[in-house]
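Encode chain A's predicted structure.
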Amino acid sequence: MADRYGGSRENSENFRPARQLHVEIGLDLRLVGEADAEELFSVVDSNREYLREWLPWLDATNRIEDETAFISNCLEEYEKREGVFYTIRLNGNIIGTISLNWIDWGNKGAGVGYWLSENQTGNGYVTKSCIRLMEHCFDDLNLHRFVLEAAIDNIPSCEIAERIGMRLEGVTKDREWLYDHYVDAKLYAITKPEWDKKRAS
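Encoded structure for chain A:
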């Protein structure tokens, strides 16, 4: 059977991202739910100016109802196994999100995206969450390739990719429309054999 990308699904229908992933004491990733709408919107709203620098969707998220609609869409994608959207929780409180924005089961790849509250940056939470999600992809979901794209001037995100050990595969021109201009993006990736070698060293 071919998936939407034209590859063979093999036994990929047996795999589904976990609803919760434990990162470390106090730090967890939980599948977003409709009950999270108010808290998640509050975190987004209080970080609006900070997040708007690199995220293109802030102007479309102005009410709790917008957040609820977004969460509903995320849950539909999860049921279809096309992606997964987690809240990043510190001691139970939402401090950001991390997601597989796409899953290509046929070619065994996935792409990660994330954001974090400004007052929680610098503690390694996103790096640790990326590693946990990447290992879930490789060890539990039978995926082979993990991809991260970041605007070339988004230094913190580029540093996360480099810290994990991802390869810079190239720069995509005008990758994203950011409110009133295009931004170029760096495309980073790492494969399961590369990660296995890195964590064994």
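DSSP finds six helices and eight strands in the chain.
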